[in-house]
Fold each of these.
Amino acid sequence: QVQLVESGGGLAQPGGSLRLSCLASGFTLDYYGVAWFRQAPGKERVGVACISASGSRTDYADSVKGRFAISRDNAKNTVYLQMDNLKPEDAGLYSCAAGICSLRPGAMINWGKGTPVTISS
């Protein structure tokens, strides 16, 4: 019953915006850092953004700095990824994972299945 479920993905145009949500079920996210990862077809999974358990610290991949913002609402047991000024290279399957605030996939413990993001004009 312990799950992370992503939502909010879909089709966006270059320059557009999406907001992804990562909802925890069966446990609380209060004591976990959470990170978002992206995997495009034929590519390795890469860390996009992470946030510490308290929300006081964040980290971003260089490619998304200034365009993406990670946040959390512990009362809703949810972490968000606001994606603005989307670029074609942002496309892929976005997964959230709980553990620590790290952009290294191997550092994370619990994973969601992902929500796809497609960028097309």
Amino acid sequence: QVQLVESGGDLVQPGGSLRLSCAASGFTFSSSVINWYRQAPGKERELVATSAGGSSNVADAVKGRFTISRDNANNTVYLQMTSLKPEDTAVYYCNAEGVYSIGPGHYKRFTSWGQGTQVTVSS
């Protein structure tokens, strides 16, 4: 089964750092698009970072502070966060878009979400 499990969320002080992890299974990880989203209370879910093939991108709000990376050998995606601000407080979700095998040469597309991990930036 396609599965994404986030971890690493915590309570940190402003200016602190945190690394979130997303462990993936059940699909062809290396060829899949992996995204990090976040949703703060009362706000719409927003895209934070994307990893697709050999390229990556982060949203303007976190540019210069957050970095997305992936370890294809271990089917894990990371969101490295530094210089955290109170406005970064949110539930962070891992999202994958890709395919999984249903037989020789046959694949089915999917979109999957993790359960989310809470990041709280406060003094």
Amino acid sequence: QVQLVESGGGLVQAGGSLRLSCAASGSILSIETVAWYRQAPGKQRELVAAARIDDIRITNYAHHAKGRFTISRDSAKNTVHLQMNSLKPEDTAVYFCTAQGCGRDYWGQGTQITVSS
């Protein structure tokens, strides 16, 4: 079992930056990949960014995130970060940290990002 806790959400002005954190605990050795999703009211959940946990440089970014968002890892703290730059109002959503391993998906509780225009 893996537990994920997101933090770092909040209110930011358009063009600003924010860094989300996802702290993992439990059976963390079973984690193979990590992915950030987001969901805005009235919209479907969508992938933001994903990466291999054993090589965080191997990534997959949504078109809207590429060049603006970056996944990084702090192995000592069992934490993955999502650096979000040049934020736009359309980035407003609840952001979820997820992890995948052994055919299972784990989800955090989500953290709200609001980008004002």
Amino acid sequence: HVQLVESGGGSVQAGGSLRLSCEISGITASCVAWFRQAPGKEREGVAIIHGNGRTDYADSVKGRFTISKDDAKNTLYLQMNGLKPEDTHMYYCAAKGGWACSLESTFNYWGQGTQVTVS
């Protein structure tokens, strides 16, 4: 049974910081990512980290967000600095197997989401 559980969301003021965590169980995934979605809009890829440590980010968050992972804890993180109201979304972590690893890939496993609200 594969489970991804996000935590760390909440409400912060513009310019503030927040750190999201994603506890992963049932799989040691080499490709994990963060996505976000606002009501009525398409899901948006935010950041991804490959098994080799390579990271990629959406242009909208480059320089502000940092994705990292702790393989020993099987935990994924998203450090969000300089938060803006437009960062207000439900944030989801996701994992996949196979060769491909990009924000355009099809991810097999998803968390339930954690809400981030910036005002």
